[in-house]
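User: Quick sanity check before I run a bigger batch. Here is a single chain. Can you write out its predicted 3D structure?
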Amino acid sequence: MTTLENIEMGKTANGVVNINGAIVKCKGWFGVRHVQVFLAFYLMFIAYGLRVNLSVGIVAMTDPTASPNKDIPTFPNWTDKSVILSSFFWGYLPPQAFAGQLAKKYGPKWFLISAMLICCLFTYLLPITAIQYGSYGVMFCRIMQGVGQGFVYPMIHDILSKWVPACERSRLGTYVYAGGACGTVVSMLVTGFLSASWWGWPSVFYLYGTLSLIWILLMVKFGCNNPDVHKKIKEEERLYISNGSARSDGEECPTPWKEIFTSAPVWSLIIVHCGQNWGFWTLMTELPSYISGVMKFNIKSNSLLSALPYFTLWVLSFIFSAFADYLINRKITSIGVTRKLLNSIGLFIPAAALIALGFMTVEQKKLAVFLLVTAVGTNAAIYSGFNINHIDIAPNHSGVLMGITNGASNICALIAPLFVHVIVTDHSDVMQWRTVFIFTAALYVITNCVFLIFGTGKLQDWNEPKQKRNGSVKLPPNGTIESPVKNC
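Assistant: Done. Predicted structure follows.
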């Protein structure tokens, strides 16, 4: 069986990787898989930009003084902002149930293109519906954007499992998912700038509609479902990818639903993903309100401060991923230990920072900003922790697993802003925010402890059908795979 446990993977001198005695010589730096990884990165960049722009934009949409252009419509009487912010997840949840299965059976390319067309259309329409139908119009557009983005996570996981070999998994997987952090930073800065400019908040949505359209065109031209059907990939790279993972043809590998839902490692992923998403989306959607209400910063300063923690997250994600691959490829720690170590960094440190943040006052702005940056920034470690663990334990079903865990966890993402809406009735009340932060920290700690106990880096028996479990790694006739990538 082709597994990360029985694939002997080591790193020798000059960036040469050994896989079951086959020498993988790294003699280049760019391959077709990097094009697919870039497209996935760009998709995450746009997806998170679309999710976040309303978190900052809604401050301007409800503030008549945000833009110098007095012709820009505003809605100061909206009292359901937290409900608006949660509406995205009403549409986001349903596709999680089947998106991974569709990607596995038919390939992700055209489903993602269709999904992003929906996002693109309703991003363009959001300013119009806001003006015509108020907050309900915005909610409808956000629900439809959520429907489109419900395909993204499961299908990106499917792309990674097909295009990224094991020795590059932490780095390239993190590069893709860090696109969300990068998109968050850019979206917060751009939204703050445009909302405070003459063009006002509507220009934000026209910009992101256009960026979505550009991604769609690039995906049509350059996207591909898997290496086996790509017309221009070199045979060396194709073999390197296929033999560096534990995937088999999805058509030969029916989804083992019973084994999945009775698997302790899968349930640990569901639980830790729920804790992560509660905290992540609590901060993502409510951070601008906290900065505006407690710290009393204006829209431009608000967008800069809201973006700073996510810029830190983006930068740290590359450091953590390189560290994770170093530990694995040098055989310093096993895959399972590495995932748990990184995940603990990504959840325990933010939990401590959030508890401390709950006791900050308006006079301690600098320390509060430092704690916010710490809480969000160190969370980057989870990209090399549980977030990529689905591919470790079952690469053939990774898209399905991500659909399951992401779907369950985004129930928490939906509830979190509503929870804040109930607890924080006065955005300037530090005590109310303290309750939110301490509760979030507790979820981080509890759910990560579950992952530490029941999580694993071992590939599960049900990854492949029984008749294929005694198979072996495919090698070219000379027993050597040369990859066009440098320093695996």
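Residues 109-149 form the longest helix (41 residues).

User: Great, the batch can go ahead then.
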